[in-house]
Write a structure and sequence with these properties.
It is built from 5 helices and 2 strands. The protein is mostly helical. Strands 1-2 form a two-stranded parallel sheet.
């Protein structure tokens, strides 16, 4: 828990404010059709900021928009928003599997 706290506390408040502003007032709507690379989207099972249903929907929008989609979507069981810290092993397993496919 201390690792999670320390990782979040290290982020400057201005960064959180900028992210919140960007999420609530995006400067433009991203055109997913512009994506030409493989995409891996991961979220924690209990993530309330980026819940699995929303991230799954974004992955679906990417699949629908891209001519040759290569989109992976993974949910990290037992994790919240900072799944890479909370469930490091599961997160790394999905990430390494994804990266291994690219080499």
């Amino acid at each position: 828990m201390k690792t999670l706290f320390d990782s979040m506390a290290a982020i400057p408040a201005v960064t959180y404010r900028d992210a919140l502003n960007c999420f609530t007032n995006p400067p433009e709507r991203f055109d997913f059709a512009k994506l030409s690379m493989p995409v891996l989207m991961m979220t924690g099972e209990y993530d309330r900021l980026a819940p699995p249903s929303e991230i799954r929907a974004v992955a679906g929008r990417i699949r629908d928009a891209v001519s040759r989609p290569d989109v992976r979507f993974e949910v990290i069981p037992g994790a919240g928003h900072v799944c890479n810290v909370e469930k490091r092993e599961a997160y790394n397993r999905h990430l390494l599997t994804f990266l291994d496919r690219l080499t």
